[in-house]
Design a protein that fits this description.
Order of helices and strands: EEHHHEHEHEEHEH
Largest sheet: 7 strands, mixed
Strand order of the largest sheet: 2-1-3-7-4-5-6
Strand content: 15-25%
Structural class: alpha/beta
Length: 218
């Protein structure tokens, strides 16, 4: 079981926390991590590129000159690819780049990504992250205290103060894993993903976020 330090917003160590081996201590599956990253990038593609082939370009219905006797190469249409204004050879057409991953594969990929962050000492646990107002300077001060630059900040609640404060920091991104009561059941709201975990140099995670991740992905 991994044991990591817990820091406060001033950057001082205030304790230790044991991380679940079922989430933060699994065998890293690089293939699933790669597949999850490719899937997210592929699913974000619009796939709206389009160019016209020779059959779609207007004009060119008449043969430009007779077959023989002109000294020119034979031509059947002014909309052939070699002509100016002609169609494109093997023109791209709209398509859907997305593909699916099994739920178990997605969960295993997230576990592998989190484990790799722990193994590389790139996971920092915060006792709490509370901002009284939307203030980018305040969030930047907290990150400077932790001595991190390009970071993914993960909270255990949907904290708009943190989310909005990070918007003006180009090297900082926020995610959350929230478990909210919905009657007798629990509603899970999560934006954490493998791509963000692997993209940023350091993952800064609050204690309640760690507890929620261990509950959701156990």
């Amino acid at each position: 079981m991994a044991n990591v330090s817990v820091y406060n917003m001033e950057g001082n160590e205030v304790g230790k926390i044991d991380l679940s081996d079922a989430i933060f201590g699994v065998q890293v599956n690089e293939h699933l991590v790669h597949m999850a990253v490719v899937q997210q990038l592929a699913n974000n593609r619009q796939g709206t590129q389009k160019a016209k082939t020779r059959s779609e370009v207007s004009g060119g219905g008449r043969k430009p000159w007779r077959q023989k006797g002109t000294g020119h190469a034979r031509q059947g249409s002014t909309r052939s690819p070699q002509w100016k204004g002609g169609g494109v050879v093997f023109a791209p057409t709209p398509r859907d780049y997305s593909f699916k991953m099994n739920k178990k594969e997605k969960r295993a990929a997230i576990k592998s990504a989190l484990t790799s962050r722990v193994q590389n000492n790139k996971l920092i646990v915060l006792e709490e992250l509370k901002l009284d107002a939307i203030k980018t300077k305040e969030l930047k001060r907290v990150l400077d205290n932790l001595k991190v630059g390009k970071a993914l900040v993960v909270t255990g609640t949907i904290d708009q103060n943190v989310i909005c404060s990070a918007r003006n920091l180009p090297s900082v991104h926020t995610s959350y894993v929230a478990v909210e009561a919905a009657g007798e059941a629990k509603e899970i709201k999560s934006t954490i993903n493998v791509y963000d975990i692997m993209k940023y140099d350091t993952v800064v995670m609050t204690k309640d976020a760690v507890a929620n991740i261990e509950e959701v992905y156990a």
